Amino acid sequence: MARLAGPGRRARGGRRLSGAVLSGGLGRRADAALRERTRANEEFFGAEAERLARLCHRMAERFARGGRLIALGRSPAARSDARHVAVEFVHPVIVGKRALPVLALAHEQLELLASPDDIVIAFGADEDGGESAEALAIARERGCITLAFAPAGAEWEFDPPSADASVRQELVETLYHVLWELVHVFFDHRGLLEGRSARATHDTGASSFLYPFLGEREDDLEAVVEDVRRSVLAKSADAGALRAQTLTDNRDELAAAATGLRRDLDAGGCLLALGNGGSATDAMDVVADFRRSPARRAIDLTEDPAILTAIANDIGTEAIFARQVIAYGGEGDALLAISTSGNSANVIAALEEARRRGLRTIAMVGYDGGRVAAERLADRVVVTRSEHIPRIQEAQASAYHLLRELVEAV
């Protein structure tokens, strides 16, 4: 198939992509995007780390009492965050984390399903015409803990310090990943949860004179909060460093991908996006971004549960994306595959099918890139070099947001 050419080589359609194009205007645009993200990340989490630690404590109390997290989102981008929260909490990918109950709901379902011990988080409160504010008012009246990322009457409001909607969304993603990771700390200190008595963390027995610290009681909430606060800062710093690696090491790869993708879209092509789990919600977000003004043709291959479950049931999960590439894709279109491992069988099958059909292929992968990078299964491969899935997903969000920006800057 035709492949996107590198610097100085003839690209599909006859246009030459010079090294100056990749390292010039688009490169400066990428550098500016990284600077804004670095500034906003440091400012946001530096200011909010203690509040986030205390929110983890309050959320742990609600979960311990049988409460659920209810995530609301009206716009496609907001719904992608609501579904991302749900999959992360219900299907934890980190060993030792327990599954926690989360529902991604439409605003109108809240009044029917919310209970007093629940936690309600609203995404997109600044763009839904007041629906989030109305839903949060109902939730507060019920006794729920409420969160929002714009002024909407929530008990806990976090306002990311950037005018760029993509940067704000990336900071919010890091925030809810951090909440998910650190709420578990308080389950290990259950005596600190409201309604439970402090108790010894260990029965030291006859060994107490050797290990007196094992008999300490769970009555020092401030010490645990301080530990969690420091962990918030450490995790946000890790997120910033990995974002810098991703956008710096892959700057030319992103610029070249954007250049080719712009050519395809201008010629009437369509972008297909896919991923599994949290990466499926990223594919949803990608398509939402490309459909925004200036609107571009884009299809989310994770969107239809009837198609996904039919193919998985009748053929197998490996075919769930490849079959859709056959149905929707052709020469002049492009495929964006998002995977934290680079080894997912259904992602690889889709990339292989896309190549057979003449689609341009772009992959965003974590770890060392897996098979996708090692075997160069996509025309352009963006590697986020980490083994920590939440951080990979956060950096990948910056990468596909930047890709969208560069498409319009070409």
Describe the structure.
52% of the residues lie in helices and 11% in strands. It has two domains: 44-188 and 221-237, 3-Layer(aba) Sandwich (Rossmann fold), CATH 3.40.50.10490; 250-409, Rossmann fold. Mean pLDDT is 89; it is low at 1-21 and 196-217. The strands form three sheets. Strands 4-3-5-6-7 form a five-stranded parallel sheet, sandwiched between helices. A five-stranded parallel sheet has the order 9-8-10-11-12, sandwiched between helices. The protein has a two-stranded antiparallel ribbon with strand order 1-2. It is α/β, with parallel strands linked by helices and 410 residues long. Strand 11 (360-365), helix 13 and strand 12 form a beta-alpha-beta unit.
Number of helices: 14
Number of domains: 2
Largest sheet: number of strands, sense, barrel closure:
5 strands, parallel
CATH class of the largest domain: Alpha Beta
* CATH fold descriptor of the largest domain: Rossmann fold
Please mark out the parts with pLDDT under 50 across 5 or more consecutive residues, or reply none.
1-21, 196-217
